[in-house]
Specification:
Length: 172
């Protein structure tokens, strides 16, 4: 990965700011959900989308949600370690825009979900998309509920893959 002429600190602040905006958006939307919905309450929005309050003590797709509680601290630790690694990577590569954008998205989302785990013991999810064609894979066609943090992490992961594909392509 090519290094930027921008200083690590100044460029990193830009990306930390983006992560902070994502964190604020995530936590704000969760405060709205907690303040207006009881667990499993749902509001119909469109034929394929509802707002619902769901709690996920596990990871993506409720992985390890049935654990006895150890997973709360495991996923919190993983999130904290990921944030530390991302800060180090941002400091090392602040001028790589797509790469740094991706890392900032992942970091903002990770911190949002870590806060949920520390405060509530689970992650608050509320975006519920559903289509009939998903029924063979998911109960009644409902994709697992997710939140702004999960969306940011997903966007970041896609951008990391795209950045790597572009880097490999430039290298040929």
């Amino acid at each position: 990965m090519a290094r930027s002429s921008k200083s690590g600190g100044a460029g990193m602040l830009h990306w930390l700011g983006l992560a902070f905006i994502i964190l604020i958006a995530d936590q704000f939307t969760k405060v709205l959900i907690v303040g207006n919905y009881k667990l499993h309450d749902s509001t119909y929005v469109t034929s394929f989308f509802n707002v619902v309050r769901a709690h996920n003590p596990g990871a993506a797709f409720s992985f390890l949600a049935d654990g006895s509680g150890w997973q709360r601290w495991f996923f919190t630790g993983v999130g904290v370690l990921a944030v530390g690694f991302i800060v180090w990577m941002l400091k090392s590569h602040p001028g790589q825009k797509l790469f740094s954008f991706a890392l900032a998205c992942v970091m903002g989302g990770a911190v949002g979900n870590v806060i949920d785990r520390l405060v509530h013991g689970y992650v608050i999810d509320f975006l519920d998309f559903h289509w009939d064609w998903l029924a063979p894979m998911f109960h009644r066609g409902h994709f697992p509920a997710f939140n702004v943090a999960d969306s940011a992490i997903t966007i970041g992961a896609v951008c990391l893959i795209l950045d790597e594909l572009l880097r490999v392509r430039r290298g040929k």
